[in-house]
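MODEL INPUT / OUTPUT PAIR
PAIR INDEX: 1
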Amino acid sequence: MENLRKGFPVLEQYIYLNTAASGLLPESVWEFRQNHDLDFLLGGSVFKEKQAGVLTKTRELTGEIFGCTPAQVALVPNFSYGFNTLLEGIEKPQKALLLKNDYPSINWAVNSRNFEVDYAEIDENLEQNITEAFEKQQPDFFAFSIVQYINGIKIDLDFIKKLKEKYPETLFLADGTQFCGTQQFNFEESGLDVVICSTYKWLNAGYGNAFILFKKEVEGKLAPKTLGFGSLQGKYKAHEGNFIGKFEPGHQDTLNYGSLAEALNLIKKTGIKEISSQIEALSVKAKAEFTKMNLLEESVVKRKTHSSIFSIKGDEKLFQHLRSKQIIASQRGEGIRVSFHYFNTEKELDFLLKELKKFGA
């Protein structure tokens, strides 16, 4: 277990239950960033000649870990940039389905454009609500978070796969920011057409990097308009009209995308199965204990499976009490959000539970 915690200095002073807000910076990523800028400092344009190799490596590692052909991986600075670029490539007007109170960067972006929008409720019957929304009016695209950022409700991806088989013409656009890096996932075998993921959370890659995974069939349904000299540069983009290149129009930041590659290497070294197993074990125990203490909303309690993000009942006083005990969490919505990653331990969960009981939560 201690091996999973190596390389994260923050864990020496805090019980860090806040990955849903920001992941940590691993020592290996920090070392890469130091060496990268030193090489740039000493090499100038000589260093710049190595840029294509860094981007190719990042694209290939992303594709390998998440089951996507490297040529269908776009490297973008964040989720919002990628999602807005994608939406601009959708001919309007079209019918869109969203989840009510989903992540603002999804819903705001869709609502700011000329789409006909409908909603499905996020509760214990999430999948049934989505089914009914599709039956009522088949959307042209369905945009949603795989894991909800406030309460951690996770959509059933097997359900999504079956829904895609039933509605093959609908585009399924998923935000994987609170999901990717928590369990094994094969994009090509999923029912998703597009996954966009900011990687500063569960992938621990730092800020300024994200990726988009595309199914090949999407190219005929989207017409992104952004273009630049960078659109044709690199191993996987060097031909006119390249689809991925339209999401990468300018110079790419090798510091940030190289950081993503280092973070992905750490995931490979640790093992996604071991990561998933540790997260699931903590999630199951946390949900059971929080349920006993009546700290969770009913919709979460009634779900069969859940992510490792929880919104527990609590106010400012409880939040400050936890902080005084070096427990790092976030105030989100009407409660306190805690989230467990693979570097967290059962001992840390037990300490949290002890402090919650002591406070009378």
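PAIR INDEX: 2
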Amino acid sequence: MAEMNHCERVYAALERKQPDRVPLFECVIDEKVMQGIFPGCDYYEFNERIGLDVAGLNRSSWRKDNVQFIDAERKLFKDKWGVIRGFGPESVPYPVKGPIERPEDLKTYRPPDPEAADALGHLPEVVRRYKGKKPITFIGRDAFFDPAHLRGVENFLMDMILNPQLVHDLIEVCQSYDLRLTERAVKAGVDIVVLGDDYADKNGPMMSPKHFREFILPGLKRAVDSAHAAGAYVIKHTDGNIMPILDMIVDTGIDGLNPLEPVAKMDIGLVKKRYGHRVCLVGNIDCGEVLSRCTPQRVREEVRKCIAAASPGGGHMLSSSNSIHSSVKPENYMAMVEALREFGRYPLSPGLFT
């Protein structure tokens, strides 16, 4: 098969077609890992040298260098939503306390301005560098993370039973920002919107399928439709065991599903058989035990098994099971990339399946 460029390769996979090789996909790679592989590089140099098939902001929605700490010792700050968050070892700060402590607090609450000049971060620079060369990704939100963080996750989940109207109202307020921001991002040059709200842990969804259908699914569907209408592909990211709600997620019309977490018993081969004709699978090398603690030889074997299970016929992009976080061994991520080069070219080698 003739060599494809990055855009052709990724779009073919997202359309469940067979590209020249399995694309390498990742939205967030920690600085520590990048420096461990290519000392002194920035994200753009790393992206080119490692051979990523996509490019993006390579961070969460927050930066550590532009926040005002309300508790510097505990590294706590208040974000633009009014949520108190704390920085830990990873790039994504964790929510500590939301501003909607009582239902009546929502009456006077105002979400951030999606038209703000800095809302898209350094996306314009990424677009200038990569538009037309590599698909540009953007991590957006759908209907869980932002409203849950405003209220506090436990409170938000309890509200599904005790105060259902508040749940609907919180989602509506948050989507007034999130959907518009995603539209702006696509108009600015984003090609792939990754909806990054996690619905589950390794045991199953954080809410019942009934409550998912009632509260979260309509907002997810609006987010998918909005991104599609703006002109982007949509990949739904959620960690955890999502099998009880997977039919509903796929029915929203997403183009890709990520990351199919192995430790949550998300069997990428089984998902391929059931849904591979409808959605591109983006995953799923375990970034916990395998990429963080095992040997490069074990990583190579896991990549081989993943490609054998998910790549036949196309419709698969290789990625980690969440992100390349700070605990990932640089040599293991390099082994993952090299194994993709070894096993991921079409037509797939018969030896891959032995």
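PAIR 2 NOTE: The chain has 13 helices and twelve strands.
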